[in-house]
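Notes, p. 3: input format for complexes.
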Amino acid sequence: MNALFLAIVLSFETGSTLGATWSYDDIPSWATNYPACAGDQQSPINIVSDDAVVDADLGNFKHALFDGPPQSMLVKNTGYTLQVDLTNGYIINDSSLLPGQFKAAQFHFHWAAPNAAGSEHLFNGNQYWGELHIVHYNTKYPDLGTAASEPDGLAVLGFFMADDYPQDNTAVERIIQPLVDDQVNYYKENATYSATFSMETFLPNNISVYYRYQGSLTNPPCYESVVWTVFSKPIRISRRQANIFETMVFENARGANGTVPINNNYRPVQPLNYRTVTRSSYCSGTGSFSMPTFHFTALCATVVGLITVR
Ligand SMILES: [Zn+2]
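Output follows (310 residues plus zinc ion):
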């Protein structure tokens, strides 16, 4: 492994700026130091529901998959996002859901500035307030850093986030408590949650409808190593909670002059090119039925509309 490659891998693992630096303020220049960013299978993308091809072989994600809490959870400010590293995260081993056995390694968030939208993926051209990414690596590789550059190395589950919930989302509140407590607001700060909790606690009630495509990391080094799963139903948080992300996570170290909030830490959508987006054939959280494509949208809209969102 040469030094440059090592630096890039370390950069991905730690979110630090070891090796070449990059910034959300200068996205067009990413490819200069990270050539994969100019590839033709990049993420995020605009997901157009009517263009997605129903794949009846795609299985139904169940909440039970996410039940097991990790051994420990380290929340940290990477200078680019708020990230939670998982020790011994849950494993998904179901070929109808993911092409291999994948282990959850970390999750992190993307958001915008106040009064703006900051999800990475778009849904039918619409940008949500933010987006949660749960990053998993293929267990045929020893760790996340090794898997990150392999074509079959990573699986990311993406959940849109909406800031329209009339009250605080109690599960998300637990995640951001270290920000409220002024523990991880500045670059390189971290904290361990006193009690771990499962991913299941903050997922939407309905996780049956999802979209699938082959893509990349959404920031340098932009490796095209990700099988993406983007769920149609958002996680809903309160405006107060959204404001904590927007104004209380800083890209500078504590004690530096002034504070610079991390805002707009999302990459704009990339061309789909020759790729196909597929979608699951399920509609409700409890249903296990599928139906012809031409009935899908109307019937799902009816069924999903009756399901309350946590
Ligand atoms: Zn991400």
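The radius of gyration is 19 Å.
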